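A reminder from the course coordinator: this example appears on the midterm review sheet, so study it carefully.

Given structure:
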């Protein structure tokens, strides 16, 4: 059995993808729970302290919810466990089973699991035209039923295209149009405009822009995205400070500014080199770094071999 070390756990926690999604859930938790979970009649929804450690693993986000039961006029209280995934996980059932028993024992409440796949690629066997599906996994030993776990999976691009989603989606989900079919570079300005014109409070519009910029950069390269999303639109912002503390935001802006100047190829390469080293230190895979910066995997590996200035 694989052992999760403290170093591996910290690395898993601190990837930019994880931090983005957790930041979003911290600001829009009740809305995400209601929309993604299809839960009507919510009376209260409170965060249970962010990450919860269960047998050497950390849940992403956990909420204590009170809502009217659809079967009766009475309210019921339960936990909603929201887990973020950037790729399909074949061991999700066993993982959620472990989480569910641990959370139920700790909080003395039943648990509803929501797994949100945040990716351009569909999970395997995803039903056509759907953005939600129910899953169940049963363990059978010697022909006998031993345990089962059920959960709900969400993959927004399964039911929407970018242009339709931007007109129908709740404001706090607008950045995820960047992952959908029909998302082309000219559409970046329309997405940014929709976020800025939404009903989200001003201080949170910048949060959504940061999330959108992260996903757009993976598709179009950082240089192109920051031609459309000005860094000045993202400041001041607490989450941009998260990137800045780790040297990511400065690297993005430096790469954009130096990339605009003719004859500054050396400066642009140096900016890329610094960013690559920082992202590798945070545990980001080489392929994701290549997509984010707009370089080939070979170029990323070449620059990773050089010490940054």
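Designed residues:
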């Amino acid at each position: 059995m694989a052992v999760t070390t403290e170093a591996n756990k910290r690395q898993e926690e601190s990837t930019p993808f994880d931090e983005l999604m957790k930041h979003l859930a911290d600001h829009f938790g009740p809305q995400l729970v209601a929309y993604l979970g299809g839960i009507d009649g919510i009376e209260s929804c409170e965060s249970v302290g962010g990450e919860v450690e269960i047998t050497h693993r950390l849940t992403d986000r956990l909420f204590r919810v009170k809502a009217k039961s659809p079967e009766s006029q009475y309210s019921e209280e339960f936990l909603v466990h929201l887990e973020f995934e950037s790729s399909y996980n074949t061991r999700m059932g066993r993982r959620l089973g472990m989480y569910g028993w641990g959370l139920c024992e700790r909080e003395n409440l039943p648990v509803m699991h929501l797994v949100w796949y945040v990716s351009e690629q569909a999970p395997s066997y995803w039903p056509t035209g759907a953005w939600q599906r129910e899953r169940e996994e049963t363990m059978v030993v010697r022909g006998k039923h031993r345990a089962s776990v059920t959960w709900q999976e969400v993959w927004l691009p399964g039911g929407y295209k970018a242009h339709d989603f931007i007109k129908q989606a709740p404001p706090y989900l607008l950045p995820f149009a960047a992952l959908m079919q029909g998302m082309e570079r000219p559409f970046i300005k329309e997405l940014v405009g929709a976020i800025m014109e939404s009903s989200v409070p001003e201080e949170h519009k910048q949060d959504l822009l940061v999330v959108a910029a992260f996903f757009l950069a993976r598709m179009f390269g950082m240089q192109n995205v920051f031609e459309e999303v000005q860094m000045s639109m993202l400041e001041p912002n607490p989450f941009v400070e998260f990137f800045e503390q780790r040297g990511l935001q400065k690297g993005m802006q430096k790469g954009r500014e130096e990339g605009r100047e003719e004859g500054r190829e050396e400066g642009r390469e140096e900016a890329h080199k610094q960013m690559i080293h920082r992202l590798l230190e945070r545990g980001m895979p080489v392929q994701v770094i290549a997509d984010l910066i707009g370089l080939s995997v070979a170029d990323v590996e070449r620059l990773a071999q050089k010490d940054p200035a």
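The radius of gyration is 21 Å. The first strand starts at residue 42 and ends at 47.
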